[in-house]
Amino acid sequence: MEGYRRKVAICGSQGLGRYIARAILDTGEWDLVILSRNPQPELTANGITVRAVDYSSVEAIAHVLRRQQVDTVISVIPDAEVQLNIIDACLVARVQRFVPAEFETSPDLRPLYDPSDKTTVWVRLNEVRTHLESTVFSCGLFMEYFAPGGWRACGSYGWNDGTFLLDIERKRAKFPVQLADRPDLNAVVCLTSAADVARFVAASLFLRSWPTEMKMFGDRLRLDQLLDVAQYVRARDFKLKVIPEDEIEFQIQRTADWKAQRELQTMRSILASEYDIGHRDLNAMFPDIRPTSFKNFLRQYW
Ligand SMILES: NC(=O)c1ccc[n+]([C@@H]2O[C@H](COP(=O)([O-])OP(=O)(O)OC[C@H]3O[C@@H](n4cnc5c(N)ncnc54)[C@H](OP(=O)(O)O)[C@@H]3O)[C@@H](O)[C@H]2O)c1
């Protein structure tokens, strides 16, 4: 790998931000600063530079980026308004590269008229591409969704508590299907552990130029295979429930519960093949990074 020492800022100190920080520090090649809404004494005590920022002020963000001489900004903040301010600050501070808080499905596979935060940020990045290089990392579902306590137990503020699709603790599965009378579990999901996502992100910092998207995954499974792996690891049959597409749509309109909404929307995206990432170009580019399989991931915990 070709390398030259530069500075990376990660916006967001917890959740995926922690994994990426660890992976970048493990390379020993980059200076790192973490931007956070609050001081992070635990990180500072571990020798990591943290700067508290007011994300509502473009000038305040730009000031920190300029002072820290940041070359690359990685955002893990799932909020469009905040990310648009960070992008504007990157332009003011002449930051070279930006990674938006994607790390999930491929933008190309999202619906054409998608009002999500991610698409809003993606559109803005396309507008400013001549001044700010950017890439989206696509990785499918985090395997940590299936660890005890789910992704929230890994430090995220997100919705996943380890009961989505598979409730491995209680040996239950709830899967989306197209039709109630033909409940085929043939939708495909790609999965990558957050630790492997972070390793690929850290390796990508060494690339001299970035394509607009970089794809990776640790495993690619149909839902019936996902269930088989979980049942194998737990050595028990799971109680299976299916939820047909029309019922998912109906419930999305009806429920006001945030977590239920996110679960249903993710199921809808799975049925629309949005979690089937396609060609894993990052795995091919960095063959020394051997991402964990779903079976080995589950074996670590269960
Ligand atoms: N592929 C998957 O299955 C999957 C699953 C979950 C998430 N993701 C993706 O991974 C990325 C990170 O997710 P995450 O769960 O780690 O995120 P998160 O826990 O919700 O937020 C990460 C960090 O961002 C900062 N933050 C959060 N909300 C903010 C706000 N409104 N304003 C300013 N800062 C805010 C916080 O840092 P400070 O407290 O230090 O400010 C927080 O620790 C996102 O792009 C998300 O889409 C993917």
From TrEMBL:
- Coiled coil regions, renumbered to chain: none
Picking any one GO molecular function of the record gives:
oxidoreductase activity
Q: Name one Pfam family in it.
A: NmrA
UniProt key word DNA repair: no
Q: Locate the NmrA-like domain: which residues?
A: 7-147
Q: Which domain of life is it from?
A: Eukaryota
- Tell me yes or no: is Cell membrane among this UniProt entry's keywords: no
Origin organism is Orbilia blumenaviensis
The UniProt keyword set, sorted, is:
NADP, Oxidoreductase
User: According to the entry, what is the taxonomic lineage of the organism?
Assistant: Eukaryota, Fungi, Dikarya, Ascomycota, Pezizomycotina
What's the name of the protein? NmrA-like domain-containing protein
